[in-house]
Amino acid sequence: MILEMKVPSPGESITEVEIAEWLVSDGDYVEKDQAIAEVDSDKATLELPAEASGIITLKAEEGDAIGVGEVVCLIDTSAAKPDGDAAQTTAPAAEKAAEQPVKAPKAPEEKKPQAATHATGTPSPAARKILEEKGIEPAQVSGTGKDGRILKEDAVSAVPSMGTPGGGSRGESRSKLSMLRRKVAERLVSAKNETAMLTTFNEVDMTAIFELRAKYKEAFKEKHGVSLGFMSFFTKAVIRGLQMYPAVNSMIDGKEMITYDFCDISIAVSGPKGLMVPVIRNAENLTFRGVEAEVKRLAIRARDGEITVDEMTGGTFTISNGGVFGSMLSTPIINPPQSGILGMHNIVERPVVKDGAIVAAPVMYVALSYDHRIIDGKESVGFLVAVKEAIENPLEHLMDGAIEKALEL
Fold first, then answer.
1. pTM score, two decimals?
2. Per residue in 43-52, pLDDT tens?
């Protein structure tokens, strides 16, 4: 019996997928539920399992876009599973082929050097130095001195200009963008073109967070099995800001503004197929341990290519941490249809004034990009100040004055 395997629907609104990689070859015997291909949708990379056991015939090539419901391969379920001897029967033939003498490739004929099209001569010492520094052969330079001698002026004028290619490699490669990367590109361009995006900045003194983590991170990790990182503090600081300024936790739908009473926080992470934004659902109900555990779980799933469409769908606000790559300052792009995104950056010792004295402190620049159509300057600046207050004084604003209780120690 020949089974036609069709592309299943990976999620609502997805009409086609792209064959990213076949994990089997045409004519292979596959087991039921064995992963036979990786497919890209515009939201995630998913594995395609075999629906039955048998000999597979591929009906699409890597890079092909296949519509949902179309046949992607055939499986002959009546074919018997090979007993393992088939591979051995080809071994003698392979060994025999290996014993055949290999003919040495015919040496290419030497080409006689062509005569120079212009007069060449011996370069002067100054000219020779210039030509050697720039990697130019004297034969490539036309000398204007006596008997064609190459003068310094000739060498200088022969040096390639900024617009003239030198002697280095100038190769290029071309590869097709994955469906996920193309979709990300479309959404970023859409966000720039269809929103009134504006960015406001502030700086945060990370001293309090540093001191708190230094004191409790070992006990936290021993108790909960996850590290006490910066993301839980910023997530809870963002939730505080969203609850104080609900307009930032809103989005436009046609002529209406939708405001949410929950905080689904999208966390931008870098995966093997590009940028992904898994969502922490109802983050307002999570403790520090809960946020750290969920961030770790989603980051691992994104890294391993196991993230699902559902885990990346929705989200009312996004946090992007460019600081892990060394970014000092940036203007993050809104993740539509959301109306705001917080950009975190690297932490650098900078001079600050405390109690009238200049001291060094770990400082992070933060940026809020927002849709000015529904978020005014008052809300955007107020939100970012609320985040700053929470990070600089987490004991009061994020822990209700009880550190060990907040960290569940």
1. 0.66
2. 667 788 999 9
